[in-house]
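---------- Forwarded message ----------

FYI, see the Amidase record below. Original note from H. follows.
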Amino acid sequence: MADNYLATHSATELSKLIRSNQIDRTDLVQELVETINSKNSQLNAVTSLWSDRALKMAQQFRDTGQPFAGIPILLKGLGQSFKDEPDTGSSALLKDHKATFTHNFVKALINAGLIPVGETNAPEFGFKNVTDAMLYGDAHNPWNTDFQPGGSSGGSAAAVGGAWLPIAGGNDGGGSIRIPSSFSGTIGLKPTRGRVPAGPIE
């Protein structure tokens, strides 16, 4: 794509453009795939890319008035499992593990009209506020690659801070959204506990 829509528009703006037939959601997914393929070697923000699956989801998308009209998103590599995709917890102990189900949060994202395109780098099991898992290597700050993007949602913050896309998944118990957002120059929202249900009984 000649235009970098994901770098210059919010997710809600992109939804309006799709619904007014000014852009196509499959082109947005392809734009993100191309960005990751060309720039991930600099930031090491993405650890798993699901190009074919995401493009198929975009092609088969049914617009029923969801908040988002088929906008690509990256999932955090911790606590945001997508069935049949890598689910390692950023640990070498689980390097070959694949998710056996789709996490409730990810289902909610999809139901809201978002399309998962890949998974982002995070520290092993999320135990640090820097993103330096031995399995995947260090993520890098989009403003200065000699520095960290923070953690544990470091890969997501690096991708958004690098203007790869407008939104990415995170989670936060002790600063894991807020810290990488402050390191990487992004807006990070930690919702009130219970606002985003972790399971069907919540």
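H. also flagged this: The helical segments are 5-8, 11-19, 25-43, 51-59, 104-111, 154-161, 178-184.
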